[in-house]
Amino acid sequence: MEWQPDEQGLQQVLQLLKDSQSPNTATQRAVQQKLEQLNQFPDFNNYLIFVLTRLKTEDEPTRSLSGLILKNNVKAHYQNFPPTVADFIKQECLNNIGDPSPLIRATIGILITTITSKGELQTWPELLPQLCNLLNSEDYNTCEGSFGALQKICEDSSELLESDALNRPLNIMIPKFLQFFKHCSPKIRSHAIACVNQFIIGRAQALMDNIDTFIESLFALATDEDSEVRKNVCRALVMLLEVRIDRLIPHMHSIIQYMLQRTQDPDENVSLEACEFWLTLAEQPICKEVLSGHLVQLIPILVNGMKYSEIDIILLKGDVEEDEAVPDSEQDIKPRFHKSRTVTLQHEGGEGEEGEDIDEDDDDDDDTLSDWNLRKCSAAALDVLANVFRDELLPHLLPLLKGLLFSPDWVIKESGILVLGAIAEGCMQGMVPYLPELLPHLILCL
């Protein structure tokens, strides 16, 4: 017999979900208490999944919220769920991964990966085969929902997927994902690349066995019209530079030309991923040999990326108006250090899918990686390249630098000062002759 909710109980849960969206703190407190009471009933979680997957007439925020409360319950005490409840939830997730609403699909995906993170990949053997099977569905929503869930599982359990514990499902999954690089939907193409990308840094054997197909498929998507696809292509190439540079060297000239274009992409998420390429390339022994012919193009692009963006300026003005009378704290004036991609691989960790509540440590300091942007990445790249090329960089830089430092526009002048700081260490020798002219100017700028 399939579980059915009691109508009165269902109305009570719906009312609770509505109340929990109220801005009133007293109501919120009452909701918390009520939730704690309801969690004493083993089948309360059945009601939550029922609202998420079956009540298609309810509004989406309420259904999604029901799923997110269930996700928190899974996180906190999944081990105490009766087997019948756990099975009902798992079955409902798989049956409804193709919900017409993107928000509901994403919520179900989060729920699935939360269950798997509780050690359930081993005890839910039908999950991966079923999700991979659903990718073949003619229905876009089912394919997209399954891919969304698989992407989250790949992000959270990449090592486990490669292990013998699960009989190495990657041997089937990677070739499967590669087929979807050619899919007609950009969202699906993007999911497919993002899934494979999870296995580059760990050099997963199943990916290494298909590495040439992977690289060819990436090249085929290089000029994709979708910015999310381009972002994932750039991210893949940056990681491959670290892990399989041997496979990229034959194509290095074209890859550099491509990354020069992408570093100027109108979408900052793409240009930032592409800019990481220069930071990573600078750490490779072949950097000087492959890049010296391209400096004439690269240096102006990096310098141009070092200006404050419009949004930065709006935020800065807000900060200044707020605390112009307050002395700078040590935090405000401490030096910053650059690290390359593998160290900062997680800097987009809080990128939550629609509807995901990101509640882990959101109180970032100003200079943490969540604040990593094109300006900082361009400056970091120029800094590391100055240490590789030393004074060879100056013929490309000095003509630009003069225009920047003496510009009447403060935004441009400020970017010139940032350039000066970035090259100070690497190009020190070559800059010495200019110091008598520069120092008085910098002192004026104080």
What does it look like?
Helix 3 (44-53) packs parallel to helix 5 (83-95) and helix 21 runs parallel beside helix 23 (410-423). The chain has 25 helices and no strands. The chain is globular. The protein is an all-alpha fold and 446 residues long. The N and C termini lie far apart (77 Å).
Give the key terms:
446 residues, mainly alpha, 25 helices, 65% helix
Care to give the gist of this entry?
This protein is mainly α and 446 residues long. The chain contains 25 helices and no strands.
How many beta strands in the DSSP annotation?
0
Mean pLDDT across residues: 88
Q: Tell me about the biggest sheet?
A: none
Distance between the termini: 77 Å
